[in-house]
Write a structure and sequence with these properties.
alpha+beta; Glutaredoxin; 20% strand
Length: 85
């Protein structure tokens, strides 16, 4: 199983939707709440080159935000990313 990291904030509806999609897929992930830790927010921005949440990584691949994750799922390309690792 690949390592999945999702950077979130508490009040982000797109973060909630991304976590629900991952939950429906039955995969485990590590959630990093950047509200609580400015250093983690800086790390997220450095790794993703983006300021918005969620930011999702599968292994070392930056997926992007919820829209990107959902698009991969709609194209039937998301499940194959979970099979690696």
């Amino acid at each position: 199983m690949p390592k999945i990291i999702i950077y979130t904030t508490k009040i982000c509806p797109y973060c909630i939707m991304a976590k629900r999609l991952l939950d429906r897929k039955g995969v485990s992930y590590t959630e990093i709440n950047v509200d609580a830790d400015p250093d983690q927010r800086e790390e997220m921005m450095r790794k993703s080159k983006r300021r918005t949440v969620p930011q999702i990584f599968i292994d070392d691949r930056h997926i992007g935000g919820f829209d990107d994750l959902y698009a991969l799922d709609q194209l039937n390309q998301l499940d194959s990313l979970f099979e690696r690792g």
